[in-house]
Design a protein that fits this description.
mainly alpha; elongated; Arc Repressor Mutant, subunit A; two-stranded antiparallel ribbon
Length: 111
């Protein structure tokens, strides 16, 4: 999943993280999100653009307004990849054979 880094970057901002939490509970338009988060509509739009670019948020046009929602499948896939990363088995190398008080397998001796 090459977009995982972009997803994580987009979630690293507290406002965007809060937008995702709101959008997981209900679809909202920009105005409603702005009121709920007590920020300007233009700020919400800028944050939504980043979340849309990462693929986390989609929008449906409903009359004059666009209602936004979370792409739950993408969010689940990203979470799954993070879990898989945390379960990666560490392979023991021969490095421990070379470690001594003054030497390491990685280059210069450590003091």
């Amino acid at each position: 999943m090459p977009e995982l880094i972009e997803i994580l970057k987009s979630l690293s901002d507290e406002t965007r993280y809060n937008l995702i939490k709101l959008l997981l509970s209900h679809d909202y338009c920009v105005g409603a999100l702005a009121k709920r988060l007590n920020i300007s509509e233009s700020a919400v739009s800028q944050h939504l653009k980043i979340l849309r670019t990462a693929g986390l948020v989609k929008g449906d046009k409903r009359g004059y307004f666009t209602h936004y929602y979370v792409d739950r499948n993408l969010l689940k896939d990203a979470a799954k990849e993070i879990v898989e990363l945390s379960e990666t088995v560490q392979i023991n190398s021969d490095c421990h054979k070379y470690i001594s008080k003054n030497h390491s397998c990685c280059g210069k001796g450590e003091e």
